[in-house]
Amino acid sequence: MLERIRIVLIGTSHPGNIGAAARAMHNMGLGDLALVAPRCEPLTSESISRASGADHIVHAAKVVETLDEAVADCTLAVGASARSRTLPWPMITPRELGERLPRELAGSESRVALVFGREDSGLSNAELQRCHAHVHIPTNPDFSSLNLAAAVQVLAYECRLASLSAEREPRETDDETLQPLASHEELERYFAHLERTLVAIGFHDPAMPRQLMARLRRFTLRARPERMELNILRGMLTATEKCAEPHPAGAAKGRQNQTGQRSDEEV
Ligand code: SAH
Predict the structure, then answer these.
(1) Test site for ligand 1: of 148, 153, 157, most ligand atoms within 8 A of the Cβ
(2) Ligand 1 mean position to 147 CA, how many Å?
(3) What confidence tier does 170 reach under pLDDT thresholds 50, 70, 90?
(4) What's this model's pTM, rounded to 2 decimal places?
(5) Which residues does 221 contact at the CB level (< 8 Å), separation at least 6?
(6) Continuous H helices in 3-93
(7) Distance from residue 242's CA to the centre of ligand 1 (Å)
(8) How far apart, in whole angstroms, are the C-alpha atoms of residue 18 and residue 61?
(9) CB atoms within 10 A of CB 63
(10) What single-letter DSSP state applies at residue 2?
(11) 148-168 helix and 15-27 helix, angle to the nearest 10 degrees
(12) Spatial CB neighbours of 204, under 8 Å, sequence gap ≥ 6
C-alpha cells in the first residue's frame, strides 16, 4: 500500500526541507517523492545531511515542471493546507485520510498523491482545486503552519498507521466489482473539454469566469468518477460540440439579455 502513495512537494525553496521530508518518508516506509518546480537545487550537502541516510529518496525524486505531471497517474490527490480558502473544498483530517487509504488503494491501478506547498506561501487556489480533498493538520489556530517536513511527517505517520492496521485486518476484498477510477490526467482532459464545450455553447464566458469551473471541478471530483463514466461524459461533450453553432467569445453575455440572468450564476 505504501508503495502507491506519492509525496509531492511544490516549489520548495530550502534543500534542507527536501532532505528532512525524505527522512520522514523513509522512516514511515514511503519512497515515492516528486518535486514540482523546486526553487532550490534538491541535491546539496544540506539536503543530504538532513536526509540522514534517506538520501536515496532525494536522488530518485522525480523533478517535474507542473503539478499535473507529478500526479498524472494518481486516482486521488489530497492537498495539505494550513489555511482555509474562499471556496470551501471537502476537508479531511489526517486520521480520516489514513482511514480512507486502504479502500482508495484497493484497485490495482490506484495511486494516491499527498501534495504539499511552498514554505512561504503554501499551495495556490488553482493547485488546491486540482485536488479531490484538502487535509488540515489540526494545529494551534494562532500558529497553524508547520514546517514543511514536519507536515510530511504527520501525514506519512498516518499512512503508516493505516498500512499497519490494513495488514492486521485485511479487508474483505471486492476487487472484482471495482472499476478503475479516472486518473488525474483523464480528469484534467475532461475539465479542458468541458470548458471548451461550455464556451462553444455560450454558457461560460472565460472573461467573466466567476467560480463556474472551480464549482464544476469540486462537483466532479466529489463524485469520484470511474474512467468509464468519464468517457460517457466526454462522449456527451463531443456530441454537444457537434450540435453547437460556432459561438463568438463572450456569447454568454448575449444570453444574459435574453434570459435576464447570467448563465454562470445559475449554477
Ligand atoms: N505559510 C504557508 C504555509 C507553508 S508551510 C501558508 O500560509 O500557507 C508548507 C506546507 O506544509 C504547506 O503548504 C502545507 O502543504 C503543509 N502544512 C503546514 N502546516 C500544515 C497544517 N497545519 N495542515 C496541513 N498542511 C500543513
Answers:
(1) 148
(2) 7
(3) confident
(4) 0.88
(5) 131, 132, 187
(6) 15-27, 45-51, 55-60, 67-71
(7) 45
(8) 10
(9) 14
(10) G
(11) 10
(12) 195, 198, 212, 213, 252, 263, 264
Strands (DSSP E) along the chain, which ranges? 5-10, 32-36, 62-64, 76-80, 91-92, 112-116, 133-135
Q: 225 near 188, Cβ under 8 Å? A: no
C-alpha to C-alpha distance for 231 and 182, rounded to whole angstroms: 9
225 with 176: CB under 8 angstroms?
no
**What is the Cα–Cα distance from 224 to 178, expressed in whole angstroms?**
13
Strand (E) or helix (H) holding 251: helix 251-259
pLDDT per residue over 111-139, tens digit each?
999 999 999 999 999 999 999 999 999 99
Three-class secondary structure of residue 112 per DSSP: strand
pLDDT in tens, 30-74: 999 999 999 999 999 999 999 999 999 999 999 999 999 999 999
Nearest to 255 by CA among 216, 205, 206: 205
